[in-house]
Amino acid sequence: DTAVSQTPKYLVTQMGNDKSIKCEQNLGHDTMYWYKQDSKKFLKIMFSYNNKELIINETVPNRFSPKSPDKAHLNLHINSLELGDSAVYFCASSLTWGDNSPLHFGNGTRLTVT
Amino acid sequence: AQTVTQSQPEMSVQEAETVTLSCTYDTSESDYYLFWYKQPPSRQMILVIRQEAYKQQNATENRFSVNFQKAAKSFSLKISDSQLGDAAMYFCAYSQGAQKLVFGQGTRLTINP
User: Fold this and answer.
1) pLDDT, tens only, B20-55
2) Chain B (38-97) residues lying within 8 Å, Cβ to Cβ, of chain A
3) Are B103 and A42 within 8 A, CB to CB?
4) Among A1, A26, A52, B25, which residue's CB has the most CB atoms within a 10 Å radius?
5) Quick one: average pLDDT of A43-68?
6) Contact A82, A113 (CB under 8 A)
7) What are phi and psi of A71, to 5 degrees?
8) Is A21 exposed, middle or buried (0-12, 13-18, 19+ CB in 10 A)?
């Protein structure tokens, strides 16, 4: 009964490839997020969706394209992967937009680009 | 833009003792939320404690408590009776309105048996 689940847990791929990370939450939350944690452990928001609508897009290269087919799912597709994309990507959800409720995080996907 | 600073990259404490992790932030807002998240080696981000800025009372969750000094823009985390399972990276975070969590750089806490 995992609350926020993301797959895969690990992803190793070569430069130039296209890959996707999937995220699902069963908490009934309206809002979902993607965060990136770099090699120095710094966490920064990339995107936020509320009820399938894009709310935040934090100057992320357009090689990154999030997609929310419904409010329980937020997938992240990355085109033309670069070495600098290597990081841990976290999906998260919260109750609803703007209520400052705590975020519930998935376990992260470690992406390694070689 | 809001910033969050954790000035202690690493801390260590003896098991059963008390440790305090520091966090300062910069904002011009008066109403906001502050959080401490824990990231153990398993990589999962776990909420430890949450403080609403308009509440003067410091938040407490079992062995975890905060010292919230709004005027000084300081939000430290105190862990009492430290346990081996408390070993983790600890992140201070700020949120206001737009619900965009801004994180500090993290403090790696080691518990010595």
Assistant:
1) 999 999 999 888 999 999 999 989 999 999 999 998
2) 39, 42-47, 50, 52, 89, 91, 95-97
3) yes
4) B25
5) 91
6) yes
7) -75, -10
8) buried
Is B105 in Cβ contact with A42 (below 8 Å)?
A: yes
Answer yes or no: are the C-beta atoms of B94 and B4 closer than 8 Å: yes
Q: Give pLDDT tens digits for B83-110.
A: 999 999 999 999 886 667 899 999 999 9
Q: Which DSSP category does A103 fall into?
A: P
The candidate with the shortest Cα–Cα distance to A32, out of A41, A42, A22, A18, is: A22
Whether residues B99 and A48 touch (CB distance < 8 A) is answered with yes
Q: Which amino acid is at B71?
A: A
B35, closest residue in chain A (CA to CA): A102
**CA A31, CA A50: separation in Å to the nearest integer?**
4
Give me the pLDDT at residue A30, please.
94
Q: What are phi and psi of A85, to 5 degrees?
A: -80, -10
**B35 near B92, Cβ under 8 Å?**
yes
Report how far apart the first and last C-alpha atoms of chain A are (Å, whole number). 34
pLDDT of residue A22: 98
Q: Are B105 and A41 an interchain contact pair (Cβ–Cβ within 8 Å)?
A: yes
Mutation for testing the A interface, residue in B32, B101, B107, B109 having most A CBs under 10 Å: B101
- Flag whether pLDDT at A1 surpasses 70: no
Which backbone phi and psi does B71 adopt, to 5 degrees?
-65, -35
CA distance B19 to B69: 18
pLDDT given at position B101: 87
